[in-house]
Amino acid sequence: MQGALDDSPLVAEVLLDRVLKMSRKPEREAVVLVAHGPESMEDNASWLAVMQRLGGAIQTKGRFSELALATLQDDAPPEIREQATRPMRWLVQELGQTRKVSVVPLFLSRGGIEEKIVQRLEGLSCVFSGETLLPHPKISKWIQKEIQSALTALEGEPL
């Protein structure tokens, strides 16, 4: 088994590519990175730490004025989903008062959950393309790196 995509620099590059498509003047814009997020608060904190590392790379390389993080916690009970939605809406609303806000999903592929972001941000001023990590050539590059790493680790191992 190899590692997960998590906070791979290639994932940050894909996310940066996605947000730059929506951007005109990054120094005057904010990015809100949104992931699915797990049910438990402890696991959610781990997700947010990974997202922070990805977001830091996006903000630095893209020169965006602000970066914020949110998780949907969509599989959680309704009260937890609502607790996740309120701060996400607040972030987009507050950031949107002084700058353009681009909301970027951190999802591997399309599957319908990206539409839940749109629903939860209804009525707020922001840009959302809905583009996920796939398809993107840098994800193929990550897969190739992982295969090469696994093969290198197997060299000299008995079959």
Write down the overall mean pLDDT: 93
| CATH class designation | Alpha Beta
What is the helix tally? 5
Percent helix range: 40-55%
Q: For the largest beta sheet, what order do the strands appear in spatially?
A: 2-1-3-4
The helix-and-strand class reads alpha/beta
Q: Strand tally, please? A: 4
Low-pLDDT segments, ≥5 res: none
Shape: globular
- SSE succession: HEHEHEHEH
The second-level CATH architecture is 3-Layer(aba) Sandwich
CATH topology: Rossmann fold
Q: Total domains, how many?
A: 1
Q: What is the first-to-last residue Cα distance?
A: 16 Å
Beta content:
5-15%
* Rg, Å, rounded: 17 Å
Summarize the structure.
The chain is 51% helix and 14% strand. With 159 residues, it is of the alpha/beta class. It has one domain: Rossmann fold, CATH 3.40.50.1400.
List keywords for this structure.
Rossmann fold; 5 helices; 159 residues; alpha/beta
Question: What does this protein look like?
Answer:
The protein is of the alpha/beta class. It is built from 5 helices and 4 strands; from the N terminus they run αβαβαβαβα. Helix 1 packs antiparallel against helix 5 (137-154). The chain is globular and about 60 Å long.
